[in-house]
Amino acid sequence: MYTAVPERTPPAVTPWEATEKRLWMSDTALLMIDMQNSYLADDGVRDALGWPPIWRLAETITACAELLAAARERQAPVIYSRSVGSAAGPLGDNPRFARLMQHRAGRLPQVSAEQQEWKRQIIDAVAPEPGDVVLDKTQASFFDYTELEPLLRNLAVSRLIVAGLQTNVCVEATVRAGLAHNFEVAVPDDAVSTDGPDLHHAALDSMRVLYTEIAPWRELLAPDAPWDRAFTTPDYGRNPHYWTETPSNTER
Asked: What's in the keyword line of the UniProt record (predicted)?
């Protein structure tokens, strides 16, 4: 499903500011991944499915809101993904996920249709604005079975900033797909999160090895940002002790 919010009026800036920001962001799009009310819901569904709370959720929402404002100021395209169920119902689900739902069916609380619709919507603090685009997706990667790639090609985008939730799931899947489609990709490490710091940092390291640019969002949007630390920094920018065996990473 495609939702286009009506065009917005560009912010008032001086000609010099407008030219510099437009040149810098003219080939860059911000992908905001799955920032939906389902992460705020206290209906017990995540607990029933064995999904822990999102680590630093409030801070991540704040960072995403600031990143969105900065991207819009620079007139970069902003494209949201919204995770939804398959139109084919359970027949369209991944078999493993279908088995999980079947196995946990007796534990899942009843959720009204109105609550389900609310959970599907984007969180108010990071809600789309006029000129943004919202695309529904049914898979982890934003590229799978959506109109994202033709949209990006038509916008002449070659660089992606991928933010949102969750670092090791839909963010990483989208990053890997973007790289496979020959986009240059960056991830703001302060505007993504998942259910625990270990998974978050491990996913960031996995993406670093793929030459994804990982940095705080303000650094990624700086006019002089080289986006080259992944291949100019020892160990791809990872902690140099990442390979050291310790009881915490060898005893499972």
From this structure: Hydrolase
Closest CA relative to residue 43, chosen from 105, 119, 120, 125:
119
Name, in order, each residue with C-beta under 8 angstroms of 237's C-beta and a sequence gap of 6 or more.
208, 214, 229, 230
Q: What are the phi and psi torsion angles at 214 (to 5°)?
A: -120, 120
Of 92, 68, 93, the closest CA to residue 80 belongs to 68
Query: Please, are residues 158 and 183 in contact by the beta-carbon 8 Å criterion?
Result: yes
| Domains of the chain, CATH where assigned | 2-7+16-91+112-250 (3.40.50.850)
pTM: 0.85
- In 49-132, beta strands by DSSP E: 78-83
The Cα–Cα gap between 81 and 135 comes to 5
